[in-house]
Structure formats: C-alpha cells, structure tokens
Amino acid sequence: MSEAETKTEAKAKASSRPTLFARLRELLAAPWLLAFLLALLTISSLLANEQGVGYVRDEGVYFEASRRYAAWVAEGEAGQGEAGEEREARAARRDRYFGFNHEHPALMKLAAGVSARLFAKPPDPAYVEAAEARLARIKNPTKRAFEREVAALEGGWMPRLREGAAMRLPAALLMGLTVALLFLTGRRLGGGVLGGVLAAGWMVLLPRVQFHASLHCFDVPIAALTLIMALAWLRSLADWRWGLALGPLLGVAIAVKHNALFLGPLFALHLWLCLGLRWYQEGERPRAAQLFPLPLVSMAVLGPLVAVALWPWLWTDTFARITEYFAFHSEHSYYNMEFWGRNYNRPPLPMAYPAVMTWATVPSVLLLLSGLGVLLAMRTLRSPAALGALGWIWDGDGDGDGDGDGDGDGDGDGGGKGSAPRARWRAPLPAFDGREEPLLYVLLAAFPLVLITLPGIPIFGGTKHWLTAYPFLAMLAAMAWGRLWMRADGLLVRWPWLLRYGPVVVLVATLAPSTWASINGHPFNLSQYAPLAGGPRGAAELGLNRGFWGHALVPLLRDEDIGPGPIYVHDVHALAVEQYRREGRWPESWALQNRGRAELGLYFPELHMRSDEIALWERMGTTAPTMMLTLDGVPVALVYRRPQP
User: Fold this and answer.
1) How much is the pLDDT for 409?
2) pTM of this prediction?
3) Residues 276, 278, 283, 287: is their CA dihedral positive or negative?
4) Residue extents of the structural domains in the chain
5) C-alpha dihedral over 220, 224, 229, 230, to 10 degrees?
6) CB–CB of 196/186 below 8 Å?
7) What letter does residue 561 receive in the DSSP assignment?
8) Cα-trace Rg, the chain
9) Which of 25, 307, 453, 628 could staple 351 via S-S, CB 3.0–4.6 A?
10) What would the 3-class secondary structure string for 222-244 be?
C-alpha cells in the first residue's frame, strides 16, 4: 500500500470516528443518564421545599423512634456493652431502644435515624441547654447515659440538613428511585423518552404524592418497594437469579410497611392467571414445577427471614411479637374521614370512596390515559399480541424481541435457535406472550383500591393508603400514550410537523394540571384537589376531607403578629412540637397548655372536630379567628386569641 493510500485510509478512519460533540450528545441521550437526572431533580426539589411542610402526627413519633434506633446502631458500632453481656441482658438492652413504636416495622426509622447521625445539624443551642439541664437531674447514671445517647445533641458527622430534613431524606431518595424506574419502564412501554417522562410525571407531580414524599413516613417508600418488587417479579419469571433475589427484596419491603405482605399472594395469582390463560386458549397445560416455582418459594422462605433480620424488635420472642403485630393492625384504632359531607369513623367506608377520591385528587387527563391503558391491557386476555411488542422487561432499547435463553444462565436451554425456551421450576415463564406485564400492572393498580372498599378494613386514612397503585397506573398511562401515537403516526402522515412537535405539546398539556396544582397547593398539598373536583373550594362544597394530622402550621411559626401563648395546639402531636423546638422553630412564648387555660388556640378544620372549635370559641370568647391559613380561600388552619381584659 502506497503512502498516499495509507494517509487516505487514516483520514477516512479519523473522519468516521464520532466527534466529541456527537459522543456528548449520545451520552446525554442515554436512558440511564436521563433517569438519573430526573431522580436527582426530584430529590433536590423535595429537599428544597420540604421545610414548608409541617410535621404531621405520625412523624413526631417516628422522629423520636428514629433517634432511639440510631442510638442502638451507634452503640453497636462502638461495641459498648454487647460483647460480654448475656443473651437476656443484650435483648433487654435492645428492647429499650426498639420498644418505642414497635408496632410498626423499623427499617425506614432506622434509615432516617442513621441519616440524621450523618447529615443533621445540631439542635438549637437553647434546646441543648435545656436538655443538658434535664439530663443533669437524672440521678441514675445508666438511665442518664441512655437518655443522653437518645437525645442526639451533637448533630451529624456531616451536618448539612435540619434534623427533620435529614430524617425525611430516605423517603425522598426512594421517590427519586421511583421516578427513575418509571422513566425507564415508561420509555419502553410508551415508545420513547416522552413516554418515560409521562410515566414519571404522572406520579411525582401529583399534589398528594408531593406531600407524602416530603414526609418521614412509609407510604411513598412502600410504593417504591412495590414497584421494585413488580419489576423484579417479571424478571424472575425467566431468570433464576432474580427469582432467588425476590425473597430478600420482599423481606426489605415488609420491613418498610405491611402492605408488602400482599405481594406474594398477588404475584402467585398473576402467575396462575397467565398459566391458566395459556392452558385455556392454547392447550398449553402448566407443569407442576411452574405452579410453585423458585420465585414463590424464595418469597415464602427468605422473605420472612430477611424481614425479621431487619426488625430488631422481633429478635426476642419472635412468634409472640409477630402475633402481637398482626393483632395490633387487625384491631387498629379508626380514624375519622369526611366523605360527601358525612363523617365516617367505623368501617365500612362507602365502596365508592377510593374511586371518588382518586378522581378528585388526580387530574382527569391522567386518569383517562390510565383507563385507556387498562382497557388495552384487558384486550390481552383474549389476544396476547393485542398490544404488539412491549420489549423485554428492563430492555432499554425496547426492541421487543423478548428472546434469550429464558433463565439468564447462558446455557441455551431452548433446544436450538428459533425454539421456545423450556419452562422449569427456576424459570416458570421463560418467554412472554404479550399479556404478562400489562396484566400484572392492572392487578397491582386495582388491588389497593379494591382492598379499601372491603367492609372489614379499618379506616386508616385517605389517598395515601392506595399510593401503591399509582406507579402502575402511571405505566398503564405510558402504554396507552405509546399506542395512541402509533395510531396517530398513520393518521397524520400528511402533516409531519404535527408528528414532530405535537407529542411534546400534548405531553406538556397533559402534565400541566398536576404541575400547577402541586405548585399552587404547596405546602398544603394534602388539601389540594383536582380541577374537575373544583380544586380546594369545590372539594369543600362537595364535603370531601380538607386535611388531617395538624401539618398546616409552618407559616404560623414565623408570624410575629400572632403574639405569645400559652397555646392550645389542637391536632399537633406533642412530639411534633418537640421536633420544632429541637430545630429552634417553635416560638419561645408558645408554652403548651390545655384548652381550658390557653390564651391562644390553634384549630385545623375537620368535620369530626367541629365540637373542638365550638369549645375553643367558648374559651376564647369569640368566633372570629385572628389569623387564618387558606388554600384558594379555603381555611386549613385557624388561630383564635382570647381578648385581653
């Protein structure tokens, strides 16, 4: 080869290499990077705005529990007192930490406590001074050392956040993970990036989700774990490694919240439904090994073991305490809930309650897309290929080939190229026929809503108890989105500019109602309602619940015009007040007092608490509040002051 030819070939190779700009553009278009950026944006937004969301009743208890559990972790890490103690003494020591709020799983409280030990700023100096004085009065040195460790007066290792924000961080991280997974899955189901953005935005932009994702509570975390479990379940049907991992994942989910206890039976029902449909329609009789395969066995065996391992309270008297746990939830005290102007505090709630509240709190355009996704998914009952190629689960390319060896071990157990992989115990459904994924999403979206309608279910609260349905409604909406634009591709062929710009415009219009509602409703998004319900005003006129938990408080803490107490705090939990004090946010002049001796009174409007307001009028000698917090003109918190003589 001549020198000229060599130079020409070298130039050709150089010109064929992608430029730095092209590489950067390819990197920015990578699905995993976009998912990461969306997750980061979600977490940053939640942390930037959570300060305005008041501490709800449950949070006050969880803050205290988290400090205690983290103290146990810190003690264990330091190796103090564990090695030389007898088993009974170690158990008693452990129970001192985990006996508080032991009726709920420990994992999120452990995570929050450790997060505070890492990132929390020290408490307010005035609070520390008062706490030190209180500790000095404790004569028993053992008790004094325990109380000092639990008080966590030193702050975290890298103090960057308020303690409350640091404890809310784990839930925000899980919300970010949920957004990333919804984007990746929605991108595959919805035909591209816009489908992924729709799936992620469907959930994270909802006002109620924004509110609950800002709390140190368990509702958003269990929704995240349910989504993770569902995606892992689909993978486990063809890959034994995921089947084995499913048990520990279930244990983690149970250690977050008891909703996860339903997942094993639901996954079994999904598998048997798919096998039954194949048998009925195609004559493909299921093998015995497919009925109770590795994924189900893994969940049944490893799930409970991991759940107990992550809940130190259960390490002693395990079976007795598990029995106590189930008894507590079966006899759970009932909450009050307003619906159509009537208060309910004993089951059953009206069967329409979850459906109406979902309609009233989720913009209708999102529900229409989800409903269309449900209808499309149900078509696969008769025709598995009705939706076309969905792509293999977690296949970022969404090419829909769905092939592979079926069990993820590369042994080629398919009998040759072109033959179907063989079903067996460790891979019960190595090849999907098109209905498995959509039907699972319909099942997991419907179950929480149906469960709330059952007559024996205690009234735990409102929409937060079916947040686990929302990721699957979001993915069904993405599925419908993709099919709609596939149809539009043929109808709008004469107007290519509509196909280029139309999807972006329609996506913005689709997500605009929930985005505006979340921005408008912050920090009172627990009282926000969808446009077709009339927003907060329309919901108040319809007699729908306005709020609960005494969270609508933070703006009042900064208002100097309210004046000094003593104050009656109504529905604000004493431990929530304690957290405000730790952070220096509670006015020093607001000494807590019962209603009969208070000069200042808070009231959070709820139908069942009307008598509390009347009693407050009598004590304060007036029916006119001196201060009011509102959302679109609807009161969410009122302040009454006793006139000075």
Assistant:
1) 47
2) 0.91
3) negative
4) 54-168, 169-521, 554-641
5) 100
6) yes
7) G
8) 28
9) 453
10) HHHHHHHHHHHHHHHCCCHHHHH
